[in-house]
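Lab notebook: predicted structure, single chain.

Context: the supervisor wants predicted structures on file for every construct in the current expression panel, including those that have not yet been purified. This is the next one on the list. No modifications to the sequence; it matches the entry in the shared construct table.
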Amino acid sequence: MQDQVRDAIAALERRDPGAAIPLLRDAARRDAGDGFAWLNLGLALSQTGRLAEAEGALCHAADALPDRAEPLVYGGQVAGMRGDAVAARTRFEAALARDPRQVLALAGLAALCEGEGDLAEAARLIEAARALDPDEPELHAWSARVAQRRGAPAIALREAERSLAANPCSVEAAKAAARALLALKGEADATRHVAQAAARDPFSVAWPLVGAALRAMLGDLSGAIAELRAAEALAPDSADVQAELGLALAAAGQATAAEAALRAALRQRPNDLALRNRLATLLWKAHRISEATALLDATLAELGPDAVPLMNLALLRNLEGRQEEALATAEQAIALTGGSRDALVTRLCVLPYHPEGGAVALRDAAVATAARYPQPVALAPRGTRDPDRRLRIGLLSGNLCCHPVGWLTIAGIEALPDSAFELAAYSLRQRADPISRRFRARCATWREMGAADEVAIAQAIADDGIDILIDLGGYGEGGCPAVLARRAAAVQVKWVGSQSATTGLAAMDWMLTDRWETPPGFEALYTERLLRLPDGYVCYAPPPNAPEVTRLPMLRNGHVTFGCFNNLAKVTRPVLAAWARILRAVPDARLVLRTHALGDAAIREALRSRLCAAGIDPGRLALHGGVPHRELLAAYGEIDIALDPFPYAGGLTVCEALWMGVPVVSLFGEGFAARHGLSHLSNAGLGDWAAGDVDAYVRMAVGRAADAARLAVLRSGLRERVAASPLCDSARFGRSLGSVLRFAWKEHCSTQH
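Prediction complete. Output recorded below exactly as produced.
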């Protein structure tokens, strides 16, 4: 048995926990009192992302080794990874009771305090850890970060430099030094300081890394890349440098070079899960979906189960239109981690697309996810509760740009009366395009917060005295729910941006909606109060460069062409079955699908097989990949009738189809995401194009396709009709939005004491 344990430890040392687990499990089974077998089993399981199992093994180890603190320390780390801060704190404190010199327990408590915003206690704990281990460079880097957040940049710079002296390739320390220099010296002097330091020590990789971090913070991506290339020349074998270079190149849109850098890093650390995931993400963003999926499948096969690749796989499978598999994979991640926050968020991101998801299941999943977020904390004194004063409105999102969030909100936001509302934006991703410029022009305050953590973002919002914070990101890529959970503003409102269901967050007060999205009686599906606008819940801003509407294609083709330009996550098994019924009923019809994922040959062929299996003749199909936005709009010139998917209906795609003269057949359900089409069509005066069940959906598509004359008349005047409707009436929407925001504020003033 000792041989087994020795072999297992050797496997752990060579970063092969998958080989260690069966050996350690057998050893623990043979001798339940062997605390070290349980301890190493817990470590091996945690390294493979099997957090629930790891926690159980570490509990056994803690019982079998009552005088050792290590099982409790590692148990605290696992609980923290699951998002259970209470259990993590309990175990770290128990570990210190057994051994007050446990550096990792002190560091764990410091991390919890930092996450809760208690920076003074975090700093104290880090100092205690450093007193015990003064030579650990990561503690210096950490101390630098906390000092910077506490408003002590001089201390932050000193600590960052100490960390860099011990580990010149530390990216974390380099970023801390750059932030401190920027705060101490300003842009020009900080840049000069780094250049001078690099000139004095030309063989140190530290200063090019600091320079790269500084350039990135100043929005100078090309300068950051140049500095990282210099760092690469000095430390060509540094996986950390290559990884950072890959991220910078990806951000600059240099996908090929970014891939080369990440693959170079992986050659140095082939079993590095984080690097594998970074590469998979890069391939994903380049719409090389099948390659990203294959990489993650190989990672799991080679390195064993792990939550992060499973979560990414769930999202990728959803994007491929494999909704059932996506949800099953997300559930695997939840089971593996014992319900970590990130795993629960992943499930919440794929569940709205599942054909049998349901509104109640979505609500319950949101509530379960929200429970993993921090409880609200007092960030700053709130402003006066004057119900009639000018209000400060905050916008929180990573998508204040040419994105569905931007196209569906900017016109209404611009129309908010400036005399009553001052706007501030908290942008989670830097973007520069026509819509982002419109947001910047409307907002009195614009803060780039992409490099800040959730605590710093929440504090910035509180410090700015925001009265009403509007979330435009939700649980999606463009959001930061942890900021909302902390209650950064007195009143918090959910609006567009992954608005598929309730957030479940206790700190979210209202959800902006309308009578089609949430009719009376739907209130039980939401933890927020419903703030219904009198018309639709969005205001579409048509692109000024949209092509002209073309003549009805079926008049020249002699047959009807149905189309859907939604992403494949929305194309479910029941959707394919409904489309097959429509095509069988209209024998000469064609079906055109267009989305970025279909640019991937493997995905295109997989979908073609699914469509054929559903009974659709491949000769009647046209499958196309993504194109630039104007070309996408122009492609509606080949479509007679758009078919909205379900249960997650189209949002922006419905608006764009209507603008291009193409009516949309939609099917509405119970949940918020299932009623987007109904809302947009109703506001455009086409509510009779929305069906309540699949049979009605099929009958409607078939019936409308038979009336070419009616379709031609509708198409010729549809853009003008939409332009004159509430869907595009920004002045009307702005007044309505201002009224409901004022109502929410008055409610706050009347109920808060």
